[in-house]
Amino acid sequence: MRTDAGARRRRAALGVIVVALWLAAPVLMWLQAHDAATRIAPAEVQMDRVQLVEWVEAVTAPAALALRWEVPHSVLSPAAGRVQEVLVAPGDVLENGTEMLLVNNRTIVAFAAEVPFFRPLSYLDDGSDAAALNEMLATMGLESSPGDVVTARTVRGIKALDHRLGGGRGGGTFDPTWIAFLPSDGETVESVHTGVGDAVAIDAEIVGLRPSVESATLVDAESAPHADDGSLEAGSAAGNGRADDSMATAMPIPPDSHVELPDGTKLDIDDSGNVTDASIGAVTSASQPGDVSTAVRIVTPPSVGSVLAPAGAIYVDTRGNQCMIRATAAQGGSTTPVRVTITGYTLGGVAVRSGDLSEGTWVVSRPGQTDRVTC
After folding, report:
1. Which one of 57, 99, 154, 362 is CB 3.0 to 4.6 Å from 150, fit for a cystine?
2. Is the pLDDT of residue 236 over 50?
3. Could you read off the pLDDT of 158-169 as tens digits, one per residue?
4. Which of the residue ranges 234-238, 254-258, 317-321, 360-364 would you say has the lowest mean pLDDT?
5. What pTM value is reported for the model?
């Protein structure tokens, strides 16, 4: 009887051990897998490897500017008469004092006055238009006076201007029909709407001006708006294309980087990703009326201690760290995940900094299973 009881106790103990092993098996398998993942078994890593190089030259990345254009302006005739000569052509830049037309033996010139001239001005007349007249005469190198009064010096300047434009030795009264109002100095002629022999009327459109870019926003090159993708709103005049605001989400500029046009012109970009007034003219010159975007590049100078690597070598672990896998040799050897900081971007690559990486270090160019690999 004692022998039977002992056998039963031994069988019961063996059963408990079997059950315990059966329950523990999944845990042991998980621990083994976790340890293997953390160590990165060679079978889990594609063996394509590259050597890192020191970042010694500036890198560039493509980007674009989403454009909005102003409504195009025109220059209107200040006088009526027969056109004898057209003195401007498409592409010409209209500056203060540019001669535009010869009408009835008098030359009409363009000027971006503070206010349009609207009345004759004579000795002792005053006002904002008198101030604009004095400024215009000074710009043209003629006698004038500071302030907003037509003085004796102003009258002498008026007489000299009258003679220059084809008039006689008049009585010194300024006639507003001599001057075509220019919206701003430096406008470019887009089209000419009159010709020799035409009868031109007061306020008839004689020149169409090239539209100017109203605003330009830095965006990713791949998401830049295009005229054929529905992001172009119809304007009230030709060339008045406007990129839809929803297509113009500003792109941040990496630290220490700058944006430049294809010809190397550096652009001033504010913290919101918009081109400032100081650079908007350069953007207009580099674009064609109706364009909804124009190509630019982001230039990042080299960062001390950084190396260049393929973009595919970077992965993000479960903790949100940016990582790369360092290898001890071009083939075989061991591999170790290391944490990196991205310091710049180039086409197809990244610049990174890490105390574990330097020029000549081998890294895995396309890591395999990294979902549980932390660095």
Report:
1. 154
2. no
3. 999 999 999 876
4. 234-238
5. 0.58
Q: Please provide the distance, in angstroms rounded to a whole number, between the alpha carbons at the two ends of the chain.
A: 63
> Strands 106-111 and 179-181, how do they pair?
parallel
Phi/psi of residue 159, nearest 5 degrees: -60, -40
Q: Which 8-state DSSP code applies to residue 329?
A: S
- Give the chain's count of helices (H) and strands (E): 4, 25
Q: Would you call 126 helix, strand, or coil by DSSP? A: strand
Q: Cβ contacts of residue 179 below 8 Å, gap of 6+?
A: 78, 108, 109, 110, 111, 113, 117, 136
Tally the residues of the chain.
Answer: 375
Give tens-digit pLDDT for 339-368. 999 887 766 678 888 888 999 999 998 887
Indicate left, alpha or beta for 348 from its phi (over 0: left) and psi (-120 to 50: alpha).
left
Helix axes 152-164, 128-139, angle to 10 degrees: 60
Which phi and psi angles does 189 have, rounded to 5°? Answer: -75, 125
Sheet holding 349-353, edge to edge: 53-54, 307-310, 349-353, 341-346
pLDDT at 196: 97
- pLDDT, tens digit, for every residue of 101-153? 999 999 999 999 988 999 999 999 999 999 999 999 999 999 999 999 999 99
- Region class of 164: left (phi > 0), else alpha (psi between -120 and 50), else beta: alpha
- Alpha-helical runs (H) found in the chain: 2-39, 128-139, 152-164, 277-285
Distance in angstroms (rounded) separating the CA atoms of residues 309 and 50: 8
3-state secondary structure of 183: coil
**Separation in Å, CA 338 to CA 9, 342, 361, 365:** 54, 13, 12, 14
What pLDDT digit, counting tens, does each position of 270-298 carry? 989 999 999 999 999 899 888 999 999 99
Q: Are 303 and 342 in contact (CB under 8 A)?
A: no
Query: How far apart (Å, rounded) are the C-alpha atoms in residues 283 and 150?
Result: 40
Pairing of strands 106-111, 99-103: antiparallel
The candidate with the shortest Cα–Cα distance to 111, out of 134, 83, 144, 85, is 134
Q: What is the mean pLDDT of residues 46-63?
A: 82
